[in-house]
Amino acid sequence: MxxxxxxxxxxxxxxxxxxxxxxxxxxxGTPFRTPNRRRFGPLGTSWRTPGTRLDSEISTSTPVSRAxxxxxxxxxxxxxxxxxxxxxxxxxxxxxVFRLTPLHNFCEKKSDLQHYSRSxxxxxxxxxxxxxxxxxxxxxxxxxxxxSGLDVGIEDHKAVLxxxxxxxxxxxxxxxxxxxxxxxTDLEYNPLKPTLQSHFTYFSNMLVxxxxxxxxxxxxxxxxxxxCKVVPQTFPSHExxxxxxxxxxxxxxxxxxxxxxxxPSEVEGLSNIDxxxxxxxxxxxxxxxxxxxxxxFTSEEAQMFISGLEGHFYEIFNxxxxxxxxxxxxxxxxxxxxxxxxxxYTRSADNVLKVLRHLTDxxxxxxxxx
Length: 370
Prior knowledge:
The protein is α+β, with helices and mostly antiparallel strands. It has nine helices and 15 strands. It has helices spanning 10-15, 66-76, 81-88, 110-129, 212-226, 237-248, 279-289, 299-317, 349-366, and strands at 37-39, 94-100, 103-104, 138-147, 159-167, 175-183, 200-201, 205-209, 230-232, 257-262, 272-277, 296-298, 326-330, 334-337, 341-344. A hairpin with a 7-residue loop joins strand 5 and strand 6. It starts with 9 loop residues before the first helix and ends with a helix.
């Protein structure tokens, strides 16, 4: 089921409703939880200060002042052509998002990276001999190297790129059949105690693409090699709602906003509801809701945005979307699924980094759950 909002402008539907009439009350819908705001401003800045940090967030390193962070980012964001290319290489590909615990004894020296490449290649070869990759291409050598461009904050380590080359069955040409990118983008603070920072390296997230069996092999190798834990990142309905609103504010309108809701099993003959809205209408609604130029974006603003869209849908079809789980969101910036799938559509390198910063914030919040 698809609705194009050309019949009734979303902003008209929104302005006709009182703010308190759209507050979510259905417990099975998409409620928001703390932290109730996320960074929205320029890269390298933070809306949080030591005095405003949430009680559940315990910083174990010295907080960086906003002034210092801003000066630093002015230097970092003067990207080279290679860094710009690296950032945009992440777009138009389907990734699976993971979060990581800190890596033990990870070193960035060239000799160490070469050692990791040989170790991973041996691990992949051993798995291949066991018949692990029956349903995939024939894997070959792996390379582990640094990936510049994703480190924009003074607490960030340079990202790491893992490439596994191979060839399709009965073909001679070799190509990259699996990739992984380990990164932390614009970390607000280092979660490691100062006494541990010389022994551990924190990458908040990992993006992986390629056959699932090959992806699992890379995860296993990381856990054994660096004594860390790799956990699939999932996105509940409230986080998807937040991202749908937040990404709309990145001001790109080359793709419609698409929301997919899961229909209860009691309803026969219909499993999903696909709701498509013109990006220009979503941006107009977003601008009416968000009146400030604050560097933070709140859950209240996200709730008002998503409720405005759901209210418009209800007026047309008499169906309450807020009683159904949100499964996927698609915007001009990115597609995100509740199972952790991510595809970046943005045409802006800055917006790629802002998406990665949001993933970093989510992972940092959940680090205490390991």
